[in-house]
């Protein structure tokens, strides 16, 4: 082996050693990575829903975005073994993680949050949020409730969407398709294009028709905003 070949082999060995050292350090960093206080933890439901990605893109949220490894693992499990609808949503959730990681101006980290304790992914999220004074972004009703009881700040994507949505005011008119009866026998229920429920008085016999109605009042509930309205014209098919 000549001198030139020896030099080249030495350089290659140094590069390989350097790469191995780098990878080892990165693994150690991943294991010891801590959640910055005030960070926003994304849960499985928020990532699969996807609207939180658009909110983060807008720049409204300035906190560091954290995706626990347990959340990624849960979506991977759903993407492989769940029914068709959940598989599709889980794959969207995994893609949303990739989209977030590519955003400029936003710090997004996937952290190794260790082995799951009893209680699963939600329990890990609650523990992380409590330990690091972080908040949780979710669309899960039960997780939202438990987090609030535990005095953890929750970014409820459904509530955020309701808040940002343009609201119809009392006196405004809209056309609604009546699809079912309400809690009271004389009420009919329909939905606006954005999913807002509209309860129409004296419309129980108008199921399957479209009605011109006038908004009377609105009510904000934990499940979303409800509108109450009265009919303006005869039903039409």
Brief account:
Helices cover 44% and strands 24% of the residues. The protein has 237 residues and is α/β, with parallel strands linked by helices. The strands form two sheets. The protein has a five-stranded parallel beta sheet, sandwiched between helices. It has a five-stranded mixed barrel with strand order 6-7-8-10-9.
Overview of the structural elements:
The protein is of the alpha/beta class and 237 residues long. The protein has two domains: 129 residues, 5'-nuclease (Rossmann fold, 3-Layer(aba) Sandwich), CATH 3.40.50; 65 residues, Nucleic acid-binding proteins (OB fold (Dihydrolipoamide Acetyltransferase, E2P), Beta Barrel), CATH 2.40.50.140. Helices cover 44% and strands 24% of the residues. The chain has eight helices and ten strands. The strands form two sheets. Strands 3-2-1-4-5 form a five-stranded parallel β-sheet, with helices on both faces. The chain has a five-stranded mixed barrel with strand order 6-7-8-10-9. A hairpin with a 5-residue loop joins strand 7 and strand 8. Helix 4 runs antiparallel to helix 5. It starts with a helix and ends in a 6-residue tail after the last strand. About 6% of the residues have low confidence.
């Amino acid at each position: 082996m000549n001198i030139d070949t020896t030099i080249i082999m030495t350089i290659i060995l140094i590069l390989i050693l350097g790469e191995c050292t780098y990878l080892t350090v990165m693994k150690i960093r991943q294991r010891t990575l801590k959640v910055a206080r005030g960070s926003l933890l994304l849960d499985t439901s928020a990532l699969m829903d996807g609207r939180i990605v658009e909110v983060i893109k807008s720049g409204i949220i300035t906190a560091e975005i954290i995706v626990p490894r347990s959340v990624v693992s849960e979506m991977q499990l759903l993407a492989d073994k769940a029914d068709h609808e959940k598989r599709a949503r889980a794959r969207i959730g995994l893609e949303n993680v990739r989209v977030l990681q590519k955003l400029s101006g936003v710090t997004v980290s996937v952290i190794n949050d260790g082995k799951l304790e009893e209680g699963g992914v939600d329990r890990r999220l609650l523990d992380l949020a409590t330990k690091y004074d972080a908040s949780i972004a979710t669309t899960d009703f039960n997780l939202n409730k438990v987090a609030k009881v535990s005095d953890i700040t929750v970014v409820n994507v459904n509530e955020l969407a309701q808040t940002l949505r343009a609201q119809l005011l009392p006196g405004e008119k809209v056309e609604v398709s009546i699809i079912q009866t309400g809690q009271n026998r004389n009420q009919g229920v329909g939905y606006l294009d954005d999913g807002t429920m509209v309860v129409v008085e004296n419309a129980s016999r108008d199921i399957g028709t479209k009605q011109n109605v006038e908004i009377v009042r609105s009510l904000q509930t934990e499940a979303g905003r409800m509108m109450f309205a009265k009919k303006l014209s005869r039903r039409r098919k």
